[in-house]
């Protein structure tokens, strides 16, 4: 009886999510790529972890993308370029740094269906500000290769690689900051919740914080996986991330975050910096604000709340540390901030104002609107999914936001947050 009821619930969710074109059954992109790089054991040097992943990612990309068609991500991207965007990495302290200096580390954790590239600007800014710091970027299992690898990934592996990442800093730094984007923020919270006595971690930096999904139907995703594999399928043109979204990806995110909104969740003792958009269509930012006010030492933290004329800000919790800021930036044709925009600088060569990638697939690939959205800067604005009416805002097409016009302001606040703890 229960399974029958869940069947009809899942069918209802299927209808609410909408149908989409079925994937080509013989495409290697939508099947598991093979035996993945094993999770590193606790004794694996981080440099070895990086090289193992780079080697595996390159082999999969070559076989399933570059051997299948010429320039799959455009003429400007070789297989080595894409590996560099998707692989984990380490940025070591500058050679001139004194060995007796107080050492700080940053562990960067990307989001769901993303790659370390989504935090590459943050990493570069941190390295410039703190040249003697040690920075490491993780790759979550199931990412970096082909979207088919998301069909069998699980959140326990993400928790395990997060533990490995934190532990890799022991004996190398005196203090550590966990820097997360989206799902990476959930993993940071889960880590400090599970290790309340770990005094290595001095703060969490949470960008587009993912406390729970924006959809109230997210809890159904584990059941929907009984009936279908994919929620959406993209042409996979972005060298930095997957454009297809599997049911299992949503299910694993739900399982990772389902306890974070529990009233009984133990408040964190680690100071938190948050920055997010009130218009975010991917995660529930009201829940993130409630979490900041109720479950973090907000008198020691900061939350930048970017809001626009379209934001629904009614009945929001108020507490010390929350700064409400305008998100619109007419000089960049930005109406409001998208979930995907928070960590990217306006001059980013891939996602920035003059970058080579535009998020326009909501118009359908190879349609006239898609082509105009991608190519005509005069007839497009940037904003979150759902902006405007019938796919237009004041008569213009809508590119989903891919950069943050307030990046410099946000990073200045991140530095102040860190400096308050040094």
Computed structural class: alpha/beta
Q: How many domain modules?
A: 2
How would you write the strand order of the largest sheet?
A: 1-3-2-4-5-8-9-10
Number of helices: 11
Question: Approximately how much beta-strand content do the residues carry?
Answer: 5-15%
Radius of gyration: 21 Å
Poorly predicted ranges: 1-25
Level of helix content? 25-40%
Summarize the main sheet: 8 strands, mixed
Number of strands: 13
Q: Which CATH top level class of the largest domain fits? A: Alpha Beta
The helix-strand sequence is HHHEEHEHEHEHEEHEHEEHEEEH
Ends apart, CA distance between termini? 58 Å
> What spatial form do the alpha-carbon principal axes imply?
globular
CATH homologous superfamily annotation of the largest domain: Alpha/Beta hydrolase fold, catalytic domain
The name of the CATH architecture of the largest domain is 3-Layer(aba) Sandwich
What is the CATH topology classification name of the largest domain? Answer: Rossmann fold
- Average residue-wise pLDDT: 91
């Amino acid at each position: 009886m229960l399974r029958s009821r869940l069947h009809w619930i899942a069918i209802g969710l299927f209808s609410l999510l909408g149908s989409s074109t079925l994937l080509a059954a013989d495409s290697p992109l939508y099947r598991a790529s093979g035996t993945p790089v094993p999770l590193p054991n606790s004794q694996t040097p981080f440099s070895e972890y990086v090289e193992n992943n780079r080697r595996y990612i390159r082999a999969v990309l070559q076989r399933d993308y570059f051997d299948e068609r010429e320039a799959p991500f455009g003429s400007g991207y070789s297989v080595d370029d894409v590996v560099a965007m998707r692989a984990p990495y380490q940025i070591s302290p500058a050679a001139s740094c004194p060995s007796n200096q107080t050492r700080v580390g940053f562990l960067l954790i990307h989001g769901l269906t993303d790659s370390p590239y989504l935090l590459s600007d943050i990493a570069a800014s941190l390295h410039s500000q703190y040249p003697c710091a040690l920075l490491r970027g993780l790759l979550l299992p199931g990412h970096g290769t082909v979207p088919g690898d998301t069909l069998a990934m699980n959140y326990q592996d993400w928790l395990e690689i997060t533990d490995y990442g934190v532990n890799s800093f022991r004996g190398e730094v005196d203090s550590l900051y966990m820097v997360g984007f989206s799902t990476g923020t959930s993993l940071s919270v889960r880590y400090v919740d599970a290790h309340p006595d770990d005094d290595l971690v001095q703060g969490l930096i949470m960008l587009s914080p993912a406390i729970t999904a924006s959809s109230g139907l997210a809890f159904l995703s584990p059941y929907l996986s009984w009936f279908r594999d994919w929620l959406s399928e993209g042409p996979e043109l972005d060298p930095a991330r997957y454009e297809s979204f599997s049911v299992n990806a949503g299910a694993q995110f739900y399982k990772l975050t389902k306890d974070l909104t529990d009233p009984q969740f133990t408040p964190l003792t680690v100071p938190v910096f948050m920055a997010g958009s009130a218009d975010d269509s991917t995660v529930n930012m009201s829940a993130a604000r409630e979490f900041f006010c109720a479950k973090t030492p907000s008198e020691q933290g900061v939350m930048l709340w970017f809001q626009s004329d379209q934001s629904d800000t009614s009945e929001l919790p108020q507490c010390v540390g929350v700064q409400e800021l305008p998100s619109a930036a007419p000089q960049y044709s930005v109406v409001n901030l998208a979930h995907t925009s928070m960590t990217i600088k306006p001059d980013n060569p891939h996602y920035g104002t003059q970058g080579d990638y535009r998020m326009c697939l909501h118009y359908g690939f190879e349609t006239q609107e898609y082509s105009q959205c991608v190519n005509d800067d005069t007839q497009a604005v940037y904003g979150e999914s759902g902006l405007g009416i019938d796919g237009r805002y004041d008569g213009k097409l809508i590119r989903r936001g891919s950069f943050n016009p307030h990046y410099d302001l946000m990073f200045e606040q991140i530095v102040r947050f860190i400096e308050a703890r040094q």
